[in-house]
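Supplementary Methods S3. Input chains for the assembly prediction are listed below.
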Amino acid sequence: MEFSELIRTRQAQAELLSGPEAPALRGTLCVTGHHLLLSPKPQATDLWLLLLRSVDSIEKRVAGDSGTITLRCKDLRVLQLRIEGVEATLDVARSIEALSSLESVITSYPFFYRPKGLRLGDAWHFHPLESYYKRVALETDAWRLSEVNEDFSLCPSYPRVVIVPRAVDDAALARSARFRQGGRFPVLSYHHARSGTALLRSSQPLIGPKKLRCAEDEELLGAVLAGARPGAQGFIVDTRSAQTAKQARMTGGGTESKAAYPGWKRLHRPLERGRHLQESFVRLVEACGDLEQSMDQWLSRLDSCRWLAHVQEALSTACLAAQGMEREGACVLVHGAEGMDSTLLVTSLAQLILDPLSRTMAGFQELVEREWIQAGHPFQLRCAHSAFSHARSKHEAPTFLLFLDCVWQLGRQFPLSLEFGEGLLLALFEHAYASPFGTFLCNSEKERCLCEVRTQTHSLWSGLNQSKEQRKLRNPLYVLNPSALWPSVEPQSLRLWQGLFLRQTRPPERSEEVWEKVWQIVTDEKTEDSRPVVSAPEPQP
Amino acid sequence: MTATHLLFIDSHQKETWILHHHIASVEKLALTTSGCPLVIQCKNFRIVHFIVPKERDCHDIYNSLLQLSKQAKYEDLYAFSYNPKQNDSERLRGWQLIDLAEEYKRMGVPNSNWQLSDANREYKICETYPRELYVPRIASKPIIVGSSKFRSKGRFPVLSYYHQNKEAAICRCSQPLSGFSARCLEDEHLLQAISKANPANRYMYVVDTRPKLNAMANRAAGKGYENEDNYSNIRFQFVGIENIHVMRSSLQKLLEVNGTKGLSVNDFYSGLESSGWLRHIKAVMDAAIFLAKAIMVENASVLVHCSDGWDRTSQVCSLGSLLLDSYYRTIKGFMVLIEKDWISFGHKFSERCGHLDGDPKEVSPVFTQFLECVWHLTEQFPQAFEFNEAFLLQIHEHIHSCQFGNFLGNCQKEREELKLKEKTHSLWPFLLDDREKYSNPLYSSSSQRFAVLEPNTVSFNFKFWRSMYHQFDRTLHPRESVCNIITKMNEQNKQLEKDMKDLESKISKHKNEEIDGVLTKELLHSVRPESPTLKTSLCYKEQTVLPVNDTLRTIEGSNPVDNRYSEYAEEFSKSKPAVVSLEYGVARMTC
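Predicted C-alpha cells for the full assembly:
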C-alpha cells in the first residue's frame, strides 16, 4: 500500500497523557495507514484508537531523550502523547502529518472500514427525496418528481431527482438552470401542509450588469404561487445584504427584480459565511482553550468572536422564513449566492421549526441527508480543516456546525420536543469532519457516484442506528409536539454550546451522569409499566 | 390598588399582582398620543409598562405608588398585617422550625475545644451579634471583651462553622482597629485561642475579603487589618471582593444593559463585561473555595472578615460552609444556613434591601449575589442539591416582599424589639409546605462524590442567570420545563412502586388465606394473568405514562409575535395593523 512510504516508524513506546475524558494510558504506539494505535499490553484487546484524518494540527516538542506530541483534533479534542526517543518522536509526528493530510477520497478510511454487524449498502438504500415526495404527494398534487438531472448535466451539485412544480416541464427547468448560478434552479425544500405553502431554495439568478431575464425562471416561480393556497404571495429571502446582492451583478449574479417576478417580495437578511465564519469559529475555540483568562477577557473574546451573533442571525432568519409560511401563508424562496451554504442553513432550520416529523430521530437524519448531503453542501471542502489547522484554504467554513449549534439552541429551549439529544449533534459534528463512514464524503451526489461511495463504504445512519448507541443519542424526555417551535432569539436566551466548545476544558462526566439519571427515571417507569403483574388477585368482596 | 398590592387585570382576565414593597422605582415618561406611560421597576427585576389614558390619573397613580412603596416605619410593612390563617401555636412552631442551638450541636459544638459564651447574652458586647456565640474554650471573658473593643462595631472573632472531622473552624469577625500600629493583646490572644482549638494545624488563615487597597485606606481611619508580625501562627490573605457600592452600581449597569430594547448579542456581552457582575460573582466563589481548601487540604482554621463583617464575610462564610457540608445543600439545611450566617450574624437585610425609606447608599445586592453563587453551584453540580432554582428565586422574592418577619430588621436585637415572632410569621414553614415544588428531581442524597464540592471557577463556567434577572420575561425562557416533567415521572415511579407493594401485600395476604383454606380452587383459576378481568383492575392503567398535558407546555410553540424576529415580519404586511389594536385598551401592559 502506498501509505507505507509515508510511515516513517511503525512502533514506539508512548504514553497518552490524561485529558478530561480519559485517564493516562501507557503502551506501544503504532502508526498505520489510517490510525494511530496505542495498546497497553502486547496482546491486549482494548486498544486506544485515533483516526488520523481527525487530526487537525500537530505540535512536537523534544526534551532530553523523549518528546511530546500535541494532537489537536477536528472534533476540538486535544490529546498529548509522550514518546520515548527523540528520533521516534519526530518520525511519528512526520508520519501523522503526512497521513492526516491525504487528499484522496478513495483511499480514505471509509473505503476500508468493515465493521461487524453491518452490511455494505445498508441504509444507503434510503432515498430521502423519493420518500419525501411520497409525503408531499399525499398533501398536494402541485409538485412532481423530476429526473431532469439524472446524469448531473443540468446541475452538478443537485441529486439525480428533484421536486419541482408540476406545471413546469423539464425543458423549462433546463432553461431556468442556465439562468441560475451552478445550475441550481428553484426546487422544493419543504411543503407546509397546514398553510398550503412551500419553501424553495436555489442559487442567485444570473442577472448580471445587463439585467438579463429568463422567462422560464419567472414562469417557474409563478407556477409555485399558482400551486399554493389561493392568493398566496411569495417572499424571496436573500441571505446577503441588499448592497452585496447588488454588487453581485458586476460578476454576473444578482437578485430577482420585483417587476420580473410578480407576487414575490424580496427581503434581505445578511448571514455570515465563508472565511469570516471560519475565523469566528477559530477565535471562539481559541478563547475556549484559555484557562487562565480573567472574566473580562473571556467575555470580551466571546463578544468579539461573534459566534453567538451568527447563531442569532441564522435562527432569526429561519424563524422569519417559517413565520412567512405559517402566519402569512406565503411561499418562501431562500437563496444567497451559490445556494449551498447559508441557504441550506435557513431552509433546514425552518423545517425543524415547522415540521414535527423532522424533529424525530429518523426525520432529522432524513433532513440532514436531504437538505445538506444531497442538496450539495460541499462537505469535503468546508470541513477539510477545523479550528486548529494552520493550513487554511478559503473554502473552509463551519456552516454545518452553525446549523448543529442552532439545533442545539432549539433543543435547549424546547427540551421535550426533539427526539434526539446533544449526543447526536456531537456525533454529526465529529463525523462531518472525520469519519469511518462514507456519508459525509465528497462535495455532491455526482462526486459520490464517481467514487462509488454508496457501494464501497458504510452509511453513518446504519452505524448510528445500532442499538448500543441509542441511549447516548436519544432524548429520554421526548414527547411529540405537533405545533411549531418558535424559539427566543434574544441574546439572553442564547447560550454557548458548552458540550462542544468546552469539551476540552470541562469534564463531561457530570452532564453524562445527569443524562443517565434521567434515562433511569424514564425507563424505570417504562419497565414498571410493562412488567407483567404476575398474580394480582382481584380483591374479594 | 389595594393596601398592599397593585392589581392589574387585562382584557383576558389575566391578573398581575405587584406588591408595593417590591417596587424599586416608578417613572412617568413623556405623554404620548395613547396616554401617559408609567414604568415600574421592581426589586425582583420585573419591569412593567403601563399606559394610562388620562394624565391626571397617571399622576395620581404615580404619587400613591411613590408613597406606598416607601414606608417609614417597620410597623407599616406587609408582614405586620399579613394573615395566612395560622393560629398562634402554629405561628410559634413555625418560628421554632429552625433552631440554631440544634444546628451547632449538629456541627459538634460545644466540645472540648469550643464552648458557648454568655458574654453577649444581653447584647452588651455587640449589638449586631446574636445572644448565643461559640468561642474557643480557653478564651476567657476578659479576652473576649478586650478583643471586641479592638474590633469594628464590637464584632469580635466567633465561630461560624465547625468541621467535625477535621476539627477545623470557620470563624468570622470585623476589621481590627489597628490603624497604622495599634495592637491589642486580648485580640491576639483570642486569635491564638482559635488556632489552638484546632489540634491538627496550629497555623490559621486570616482572610480579609476586601481588596488590599481598600483595607489599606481603612488604616488611615484607625481601622485596617491584622499585622502578621503581631499575631503568632497566622497567615494573612486578601481575596479582593469589592464593597457594597461597587456591587450596587455593577448590578445597576447589568440591569440597564438587559433593559435595552432590541439588544444585540454583541451589546449584551460587552454590557455583561463592562458591568463586571460575573467578575464579582467569581471573586466571591473563589474566596469560598479558598476557605474550603484551607480546611480540607491543610486542616487549617480560617478567620474571615471584611470591614464590618456582615456583608462579604457572610457571603464567604456561608458559601464556604455550603461547599464543605452537604447538609446545607438540603432544603432545610439551606434555611439553617441563611438563618445562621445571614440573619443571626446581623446582615442588614432591611438596609440592604431598602425595606424602609432610608439611605439609598445602604442598598446593595449582597444576598442576591450569594443566591447567584449557589445557583452557579447547582449548575455545576446538578445532583448535589436537594432544592431547585425555583427555591432560590422564591427566597429572593421574599427578602424584598416584607411579607414574612424573617428578613425584617438589621440584627437580632432589633428583631426582638420589633417582637417579630409574635407579630409576624416565619417564611420557612410555608416553603417547606411546598417542598415538592422546590425539590430537585435529580438530587442524589447518598452520593459520596458530592461530600465536598470542588467547583471549577474557570471564567466560562459563569453564565448570566436569566431566570433571576428576567424571571418575568417569559418569552426568554425555555418553553418546556425539564425539571417539572422529571419530578412528575419520579412521582409516578413512586406511585407505581407503592401500587406494586400494595398488590404484593395483597398477594401474600391472599396466599395466607389460601393456607387457611378460605380461597377456593376456582378463585385461583380466575386470577391467572391472562384473565381479561385482571387487566381492568390494574390501578395504574388510568395514568398516562407521560404527562402530555403539563401546564407548562401550554406556553410552548407560543406566539411568534412575542419574539423579536417578528419585528422584521412587519415588513411582511405593512398594510395590516397587527398588534397595534392592543394599545387602545384602558392600559397596555408588557411585562
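The two ends of chain B are 18 Å apart (CA to CA). Confidence is low (pLDDT under 50) at residues 518-562, 566-591 of chain B.
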